[in-house]
Known about the structure:
Layout: E1 3-11, E2 20-25, H1 33-43, E3 48-52, E4 61-66, E5 71-72, H2 76-90, E6 95-101, E7 104-113, E8 116-122, E9 127-128, H3 134-144, E10 158-161, E11 166-171, H4 174-179, H5 184-194, E12 198-203, E13 213-219, E14 224-227, H6 231-243, E15 253-260, E16 268-277, E17 280-288, E18 290-299
Parallel strand pairs: 2-3, 4-6, 11-12, 13-15
Antiparallel strand pairs: 1-2, 1-18, 3-4, 4-5, 6-7, 7-8, 8-17, 9-10, 10-11, 12-13, 13-14, 15-16, 16-17
Helix pairs in contact: 3-5
Amino acid sequence: xxxxxxxxxxxxxxxxxxxxxxxxxxxxxxxxxxxxxxxxxxxxxxxxxxxxxxxxxxxxxxxxxxxxxxxxxxxxxxxxxxxxxxxxxxxxxxxxxxxxxxxxxxxxxxxxxxxxxxxxxxxxxxxxxxxxxxxxxxxxxxxxxxxxxxxxxxxxxxxxxxxxxxxxxxxxxxxxxxxxxxxxxxxxxxxxxxxxxxxxxxxxxxxxxxxxxxxxxxxxxxxxxxxxxxxxxxxxxxxxxxxxxxxxxxxxxxxxxxxxxxxxxxxxxxxxxxxxxxxxxxxxxxxxxxxxxxxxxxxx
Length: 300
């Protein structure tokens, strides 16, 4: 039996019980896949992160991510949560830690300020698939409970990824966004057909000049009907907006704030930064606050 130090962290917020909750086990060395899956199921957050010691000189540690029913390669809000938990557990100063994930070694920056922390996650390589054909797009629109006229015509429906892919679906109205009642069974079935589990529905319909987009993210194919605030949706959204020239930009950087979780009372905000070269996205980072909901120990 070993005591596993376990946190629940709310990411992309400084208010407890808002943003996106993630479990974090900060001392996971020696745990089996079965034990990690059991803890993830018990905590029942959309993801739980497990931190391991490094397995070589090329990284500062290893991080793995589990939903309540499967392992996933990378997760934005659980990365913010994991680095925040490590920072407060070890009372870290500002630093950059290189963690080995299923999509490679990524640098995560911990920023200490006024005895608290923010975290910057560098995401994986940006990839954008071709837009879906009309048949698949219509299946998706129907499963989401949308009408074709509600789709933002300047936004192609296509998969964007920085390591854990999401379908980007732009719509015209925030009221429509908040009124969505998707057919989760249909979305999960469609996920197998398109080989993508996440559907990120977003809109530019914002009444706040500091917020560019509002979004909702559905992933019933991996047991997450709705994810509150999704780093691996808003990050790829930044690349999608730049590559499709949907938003104006000048120079080598584009930054925006995305808000998510309004409908389900878990509101959170994250900052997305896209580094641009030759008018295409080269590097995507997300930055967020976090707050600890609780710290406990699990004997296993």
